[in-house]
Design goal:
Layout lengths: L2 H16 L20 H15 L5 H6 L3 H11 L3
Helix pairs in contact: 1-2
């Protein structure tokens, strides 16, 4: 699966969890850029991504992410993309 397809699937998860169909993610998107993306929603997003892609992120990985691009990089690494 290529990175663009993964990004589209991650974006779909964000749209579903945040209930915002018009949300468009970019690699440099942060929680400050998205209404409703708070600490609780962050956990819901991570759990949904882990379930969808059948991966598990460590707390260290999660805490290191500064934006969607870094989340995507970790995910792609786990999927060997």
């Amino acid at each position: 699966m290529e990175e663009e397809k993964i990004m589209n699937r991650v974006q779909d998860i964000f749209r579903d969890v945040l209930d915002e169909e018009s949300l468009t993610l970019k690699r440099d998107t942060t929680a400050n850029d998205v209404d409703g993306w708070d600490s609780l929603t962050h956990i819901q997003l991570i759990v949904a991504i882990e379930k969808r892609f059948k991966v598990k992120f460590s707390s260290k990985e999660i805490l290191s992410w500064k934006n969607v691009g870094e989340l995507l990089d970790s995910l792609c690494s786990k999927l060997n993309v």
